[in-house]
Amino acid sequence: GRPFAVSGIHGTGTGDLLDEVCFNLPKVVDPVEDTAINVSIIGKPNVGKSTLLNRLVQSDRAIVSNIPGTTRDSVDEMVENDGKLYRLIDTAGIRRKRGIEFGTEFFMINRAFNAIRRSDVSLLLVDGTEDMSDQDGKIAERVVDEGRGCVIICNKWDAVEDKDNSSWKKMNEYVRESLPQLTWAPIVVASALTGQRTANVFKEVNDAVEQHRRRVSTAVLNEVLYEAVSWHKPPATKAGRQGKIYYCTQVAVRPPTIAMFVNDPSLFRENYRRYMEGQFRKALGFAGTPIRVVWRGKSRAPIL
């Protein structure tokens, strides 16, 4: 090709060089829409995240070891199942903050948090052979705070000793009690090592994604609201100020977000707010996804 006389220090001739480079670049075509479902695989160290990734992609793509901290970076793998494309994101184990020093592990865990943020659904792995800890709850809270769908995977079921006909039910109850932040998340008791029940993971992910992107009409929401208020009236202050709910509507998805228009948000305490969220879940489901209920003040005559 034609030579270009340039000076890296002074920048002489670099403009002509850049023009020539841009001229020879391939034409930009319209980008293809990314339809893949993003699924992050998260949990404490050594709970079997990389083993589950290998099982789901049916290939040894991630290094598996009993040594905690083997996975040091988030690893993306594309896999197709039943005509749908998934981006599985294996992450480093998330330890307590107090045990983390600034350095490699600090950035490893930050990348794990970023993986949660860019996912549609998180697979939260817990070790079925050990008691659950506060760290499992901290990771669950991170999923809720980021507004991501979630499926709980109780892993290493093959290594649980002295199983009987009631063991599966007891494990579900134990996980549910240990993670009150995720009462809405489905639980899959499985073994990534043997593949037991791992075939159910994609189905649960699909259901969670559907609910995470679900939109409910304002008419249906207000029917649920009317029924909830008729059973439990809004609270009143000692001074006699009555909380009034005018109407509600869904304002966002991913996660589903419902705006409640009231006379004064400060009149509605946390217990009544939890009651309303529970009523929406009871009537509409939303299994596999968090929902957010925001309370907004509005000056208008009540319709309820």
Keywords:
3-stranded mixed sheet, alpha/beta, 304 residues, 6-stranded mixed sheet, 19% strand
How does this model look, in words?
With 304 residues, this protein is an alpha/beta fold. The protein is built from 8 helices and 9 strands. The strands form 2 sheets. It has a 6-stranded mixed β-sheet with strand order 2-3-1-4-5-6, sandwiched between helices. A 3-stranded mixed β-sheet has the order 7-8-9. Helix 8 (270-284) links the parallel strand 8 (257-262) and strand 9. Helix 7 crosses helix 8 (270-284). The longest helix has 15 residues, at 270-284. It is globular. The termini are far apart.
Entry summary:
With 304 residues, this protein is an alpha/beta fold.
Coarse shape: globular
The gyration radius over C-alpha positions equals 25 Å
Stretches where pLDDT is under 50 for at least 5 consecutive residues are none
Averaging pLDDT over every residue, what do you get?
A: 88
Structural class: alpha/beta
Strand order of the largest sheet: 2-3-1-4-5-6
DSSP helix fraction:
25-40%
The profile of the biggest β sheet is: 6 strands, mixed
Number of helices: 8
Strand content: 15-25%
| SS elements, strand count | 9
What pattern of helices and strands is seen along the backbone? HEHEEHEHEHEHHEEHE
**How far from one another are the termini?**
78 Å
Oligomer: single chain
